[in-house]
Design brief:
By secondary structure, the protein is of the alpha+beta class. It has one domain: Arc Repressor Mutant, subunit A (Orthogonal Bundle), CATH 1.10.10. Helix content is 41%, strand content 18%. The protein contains three helices and three strands, in the order βββααα. Strands 1-2-3 form a three-stranded antiparallel sheet. α2 packs across α3. The longest helix has 17 residues. The mean pLDDT is 83.
């Protein structure tokens, strides 16, 4: 998977899939904003709060949209969603 920023657009190119085809995804402004912040440390709630502060949208709608966005990215192999254990769960 490769991400390119061309001007003000972000393009994801997924390669090496089992069907041997390349898949191109053009991200909208919010998708690009979120993509730039995916670092393996921020949670979906953290990213939703970031979006809420930067764009004019309600938090419940943002959380719903991000959940759908991440599920799609995971389905196409662009990301892996990790479930974190609470520190109180270990031990």
């Amino acid at each position: 998977m490769v991400a390119y920023r061309i001007g003000d657009e972000t393009i994801l190119i997924l390669t090496g899939r089992s069907d041997e085809m390349e898949h191109f995804y053009k991200l909208n402004d919010i998708g690009a904003f979120v993509w730039d912040r995916i670092d393996g440390k921020r949670t979906i709630a953290d990213l939703a709060a970031d979006v809420s502060c930067s764009f004019d949208a309600g938090l419940p709608q943002i959380k719903s949209d991000l959940s759908e966005f991440f599920q799609h990215l995971q389905k196409v192999g662009a990301i892996r969603i990790l479930i974190r254990k609470n520190s109180s769960d270990s031990g």
